[in-house]
Design goal:
about 190 residues, 9 helices, Hypothetical protein af1432, mainly alpha
Length: about 190
């Protein structure tokens, strides 16, 4: 990749460092999309022993690139996202991939298609971790930053995404207990 193109691409996806999500950090500041992607990627790395049959490197790549479109569109919470938002994000991803060398662009396009189809163990794991990381972030954030719907959403969010794994079901149950404790304690 030509250095000029590399720097241009990094400048665009670098916006993920300042584009914020609707969740707040424990230190009472809005989380960036990049922070979410980073911790999600770390979660994936930590799943190696739990999912020995899964290509964890592929899952990490999915975690790192899954929100690329938000460098252009900004973050729209999943509970607010509509079909038009989805189309804008897909176009943003296509535009970004067009900036990359063909081999990388094709690899990333294949990963995006795999994530969308949700048929492989890698895609299922990425999606489950994406949902679980969001719950962890909410559980760490001050309760006064929660939207009203998050009091119930945090108890059910991602439940359908973990059903393929006993380990993820247990992790989801632990996070639900953490959410309930946070709500009950008014933290």
């Amino acid at each position: 990749m030509q250095p000029k193109k590399l720097v241009e691409f990094l400048g665009i996806v670098g916006k993920l460092k300042s584009n914020t999500r609707h969740v707040w950090n424990a230190d009472n500041r809005q989380e960036s999309v990049a922070e979410h992607c980073w911790r999600l990627s770390v979660m994936a790395l930590l799943m190696t022993d739990e999912f020995p049959e899964v290509d964890i490197n592929k899952v990490v790549k999915m975690c790192l690139i899954h929100d690329f479109g938000e460098a252009i569109t900004g973050d729209i919470p999943s509970f607010m996202k509509n079909e038009e938002d989805e189309e804008k994000e897909e176009k943003a991803i296509i535009d970004l991939l067009d900036m990359l060398p063909k081999s990388i662009s094709e690899e990333f396009a294949d990963l995006f298609a795999e994530m969308a189809n949700m048929e492989t163990e890698e895609a299922k794991l990425y999606k489950a971790l994406d949902k679980l990381e969001a719950i962890i972030s909410h559980n760490e954030s001050p309760l006064e930053t929660w939207l009203e719907l998050e009091y119930t959403e945090n108890l059910i969010y991602g439940t359908e995404n973990v059903v393929f794994s006993d380990y993820l079901i247990k992790l989801r149950e632990k996070l639900m207990k953490d959410s309930i404790q946070k709500i009950e304690n008014g933290e």
